[in-house]
Amino acid sequence: MIAVISITVKLPSIKSNANAPSVAEIVMEKTSGRILHEINANQKLPIASTTKTVTAITVIENYDLEQTVTVPKECVGVEGSSIYLKEGEKYSVKDLLFGLMLRSGNDCAETLAITLSGSISNFTDKMNDLATKCGAKNTNFVNPHGLHDDNHYSSAYDLAKITCHALKNEKFKEIVSAKRHVATELTTNTKREWINKNKMLNSYEGATGVKTGFTKKAGRCLISSAQDGDMEIVCVVLNSPMMFERSKQLLDCSFQDYKLVKVIDKDKFNYVLPNENGEYKCLKIDFSFYYPIKNGEVLTPKLILPEKLETTVKSNQIVGKIEIYGSKQLIFYQNIYTL
After folding, report:
1. What is the spatial distance between Cα 123 and Cα 170, in angstroms, rounded to a whole number?
2. Which tens digit of pLDDT belongs to each residue from 188-246?
3. Over the stretch 69-120, which tens digit does the pLDDT of each residue have?
4. Do residues 169 and 53 touch, judged by C-beta distance below 8 A?
């Protein structure tokens, strides 16, 4: 059955850190997409190497990770952070993704973009398409690594939305949560070990990723994620001088302030309705609904169903819907079907 949910434990709240307009922050729960904290979250800003989060999930969703790629001449010696690829070296796509996300290799980013899609512009088209599908509204990518370009930008909100999407992919999670990785250069069978630059993985309990970034214009940027029990949250800070410390504070406060609750349990949804002949049919829903609930918050369910079903109703036919409201705002709904 459906219950009204209320949590009354008194918990600390997140304090604001919005002294500078160019500092942007957001904390978002992965499954529901609920915003737990935000400052300047929709401001368009340079995002440095946090760009590579989008590069990685774009590769994972569009290409074979076991494919072998050969490093082209134009990808050798790319400006900024590098894993020092050499022309003609061969790696699996998956190994280069580890180099991209653990060591922030700009040469990895360009090698993947050019060898897999033919050009930087073709690849960034895919990045922009993915961002749009994730609900990004203030984002435009012109390169796969985040080196500064006035036309390359995103927002804390958009990065959080994309990261929540990416973290639902097990291959992405495997890569961004790895503290180290041993790659193989395939022409010589040479082994290369890469240690993850993301200090959160070693310093924050429950950390699961994701990506650091820095340029002079973007400042210090970090997308971090962490899990406590069933709840996983994503934190984005842009132009944050103490990015690790601030992210830990935001994660701590979010886990203290919110608890993930199963608001609707599909296995306990046991409603029945009569049809016009007085015969009863069982009803069902497709999935359970989980939502992060804050201290003292109440959610209210609403069932929208007819008094009686038509005699011609069939199995798996939509007959109504269930809505969930918080603070008089609709936060969720799904259809109700006949069994």
Report:
1. 22
2. 999 999 999 999 999 999 999 999 999 999 999 999 999 999 999 999 999 999 999 99
3. 999 999 999 999 999 999 999 999 999 999 999 999 999 999 999 999 999 9
4. no
Amino acid at 67: Q
| CA pair distance 57, 7, nearest whole angstrom | 36
Instruction: Decide which of 202 and 10 is more confident.
Output: 202
Question: What is the Cα–Cα distance from 339 to 333, expressed in whole angstroms?
Answer: 19
Find the Cα–Cα–Cα–Cα dihedral 172, 99, 116, 119, rounded to 10°: 120
Other Cβ atoms closer than 10 A to 322 = 21
Beta bridge partner(s), residue 144: none
Q: Cα–Cα distances in Å, from 221 out to 211, 324, 338?
A: 9, 35, 49
Query: What pLDDT score does 9 carry?
Result: 32
Angle subtended at Cα 96 by Cα 90 and Cα 97, rounded to the nearest 5 degrees: 155
Task: Read off the pTM.
Answer: 0.90
Give the span between the Cα atoms of 56 and 94, in whole angstroms.
Answer: 10
Separation CA 26–CA 233 (nearest Å): 10
The catalytic site residues sit at 49, 52, 104
Burial of 15 (0-12, 13-18, 19+ CB in 10 A): exposed
Q: Which of 321, 332, 207 is nearest to 262 (CA)?
A: 332
Tokens of 203: 């310093």
Question: Beta-strand (E) ranges in the chain?
Answer: 5-6, 24-29, 35-39, 68-70, 90-92, 180-185, 190-195, 207-215, 219-228, 231-238, 258-264, 272-274, 280-284, 289-294, 298-304, 318-326, 329-338
